[in-house]
Amino acid sequence: HAPPPPAAGKELIATELAAARARSLAYTDVEDDLLVRQHSPLMSPLVWDLAHVGNYEELWVLRAAGGITPLRPEIDDIYDAFKHPRKDRPSLPLLGPAEARRYISGVRGRVLDVLDAVDLEDPDPLRAGGFVFGLVVQHEHQHDETMLATLQLSGEPGLIRDGELPPGRAQEAGETRSEDEVFVRPGPFFMGTDALPWAYDNERPSHLVDLPGYWIDRWPVSNGDYLAFIADGGYDDPRWWRPEGWEWVRQKGIHAPLFWTRDGAEGDAGRHIGHRGNGGRRAAGGDGWWRRRFGRMEPVPLDEPVQHVSWYEADAYARWAGKRLPTEAEWEKACGGRRFPWGDADPRPDQANLGHRAARPAPVGAYPAGAGPYGAEQMIGDVWEWTSSWFQPYPGFRSFPYPEYSEVFFGETYRVLRGGSWATHPTAIRTTFRNWDYPIRRQIFAGFRCARAAG
Ligand code: AVJ
Ligand code: FE
């Protein structure tokens, strides 16, 4: 088993706190109207997320770890995610944008005082190794990714913050598919972790899991791959779908990933046709399909991992392809039982597409240097990957520091996603990290890869 990385020092913690905050402020550096409006009943107004990250910091760092008297106890109720579902949040007496910024910066000042005074060797589990700071840093980054999903749903241009990404693998002329598999030998591996000081309760404890041999795709399923499923009538063939998934696509009239539209069609994305530009990628094709990306229309790039698909769509594609989704154990074992597929060192830009370097996944094959020991690539970053597993506790699970982070979600309601997306910050991802969502959700930056049994 890998040795634990050294516990974070105070300087590193301060840097991480500042990085998360810079991101939250950048994503909310827009007109007030865009912050207070609700863009989708699936999401909070952005100004709720902004004050919520400050309130969470107040609850956990200032009150629970620092023993500081509550600053604004009267707003706790408003920012309690369990008291008010997202769709109801616009009608709450939310702090306005300026007040929210003032509140979170006031909290942050005191958080830095607590950090100055804290003993990181203190055996108290909230303070040991700076756990409570890891908790709030990762929490803020998770809400930052949620804010990006809200901005994508809003259809507003701007904030796209595009950048350069490495090129994908060389393709033969006319080739669009990216099917290639790697073999993972049978045998036991340690799933989860006891060693990473900032890991969540749901990643613990580390436990031995024995798996038969299996094949897993070398890359996430690409848009080109997925278009073959569409072209083959995949959305119109009940053979590929779980009964409840079939009922859902029929009822909602779903025939492509979210934000996709066909030439001439007037789907959801079609309303934004005024923003259409070729994004310099027309040569990449699109097969007559366009997508709306942060308010801009562009041809669907065939070599990018597909994103904005639900678990039901991923599951149907896999069945059509003669495969299945990997279990989360299979997904994790393919990463080799380390913090990252390449080892324990922090991600380099040539190993994974993380942290919103560009506002899109990188093409399939862009990160050979990020391969795991069995050869699987792009396990970390680009798109969250749906697995076949329900979100369930590991044997010996103990809730910490509060049941509403993980425990209340266990059961057969949420499917597990792994690996993080282009929008996930490197501090908030590792091979043991577990994300979860409803199987119908498509606004998250999620795609998938397939697996199949050996033999
Ligand atoms: C782990 C992404 C499912 O956003 O609902 C944020 C993380 N928990 N605030 C979510 C979370 C509390 C959570 N996910
Ligand atoms: Fe939260």
From TrEMBL:
Q: What is the uppermost EC class here?
A: oxidoreductase
Q: Does the record's keyword annotation contain Kinase?
A: no
Coiled coil spans: none
Specify whether Iron is a keyword of the entry: yes
InterPro entries per the UniProt record, alphabetical: CTDL_fold (IPR016187), DinB-like (IPR024775), DinB/YfiT-like (IPR034660), EgtB_Actinobacteria (IPR032890), Sulfatase_Mod_Factor_Kinase (IPR051043), SUMF_dom (IPR005532), SUMF_sf (IPR042095)
- DinB-like domain: residues covered: 17-147
Q: Which SUPFAM superfamilies match?
A: C-type lectin-like, DinB/YfiT-like putative metalloenzymes
Catalyses: gamma-L-glutamyl-L-cysteine + hercynine + O2 = gamma-L-glutamyl-hercynylcysteine S-oxide + H2O
| Cofactors named for this entry | Fe(2+)
Annotated pathway, please?
Amino-acid biosynthesis; ergothioneine biosynthesis
Q: According to the UniProt entry, what is the EC number of this protein?
A: 1.14.99.50
Q: Which residues form the Sulfatase-modifying factor enzyme-like domain?
A: 179-452
Tell me the residue numbers annotated for binding Fe cation: 52, 139, 143
Q: Where does gamma-L-glutamyl-L-cysteine bind?
A: 86-89, 437, 441
What is known about what this protein does? Answer: Catalyzes the oxidative sulfurization of hercynine (N-alpha,N-alpha,N-alpha-trimethyl-L-histidine) into hercynyl-gamma-L-glutamyl-L-cysteine sulfoxide, a step in the biosynthesis pathway of ergothioneine.
Entry's family note = Belongs to the EgtB family.
How is this protein named in the record? Hercynine oxygenase
The organism of origin for this protein: Microtetraspora fusca
Gene expressing this chain: egtB
